[in-house]
Amino acid sequence: MIIMSGKKGFTLIELMIVVAIIGILAAIAIPNFLKFQAKAKQAEAKSNLSAIYVAQLSYFGEHDIYCTLFSQLGWVYEGPSKYEYFFSATEFAGDVPGLAMPAGVAVGTNTFTAGATGNIDADTTVYDMWTINDRKLLLNIVNDVIND
């Protein structure tokens, strides 16, 4: 026969307090995690637009004009992408309903602007949009992360 000399374990109140503390910490941590996850997805657009910029400089060095098609440029994104990439307003039209291209976004002989747009947080209201031009000016035209 085993006799326990003292009570061991947690009371229901103690367990409820621990669960409440974990719930509060989760309520604080989850939105921050989702925001940082969306910012990490934006790195895809920045990285690919920088690669497009380098490819355009190389193409310009050989042909004295900027390229208007990704197929001619030799830039191909492999794997699943959160973004769609574009050079001109006509290529962009219809991809994202309700968004108009910023003025001057196109490809010319001595200038270019490439862009990326995507829905990185799965909402249906705002799409993230980035552009880069021949002067390596990388702009976040519409920020899907801060608009939520």
Which features does this protein show?
148 residues, alpha+beta, 4-stranded antiparallel β-sheet, rod-shaped
Structural notes for this entry:
The protein is α+β, with helices and mostly antiparallel strands. The chain has a domain at 42-142. 41% of the residues lie in helices and 14% in strands. It contains 3 helices and 4 strands. The chain has helices spanning 12-63, 70-73, 89-92, and strands at residues 84-86, 113-118, 128-133, 138-142. It has a 4-stranded antiparallel sheet with strand order 1-2-3-4. The longest helix is centred in the first third of the chain and has 52 residues, at 12-63. The chain is rod-shaped. Mean pLDDT is 80; it is low at 89-105.
Give the end-to-end Cα distance, rounded to a whole number of Å.
63 Å
Q: C-alpha Rg, in Å?
A: 25 Å
Strand content: 5-15%
Percent helix, as a range, is 40-55%
| Strand numbers in spatial order across the main sheet | 1-2-3-4
Kindly state the number of beta strands. Answer: 4
Largest sheet: 4 strands, antiparallel
Per the principal axes of the C-alpha atoms, what is the gross shape? rod-shaped
Which structural class do the helices and strands define? alpha+beta
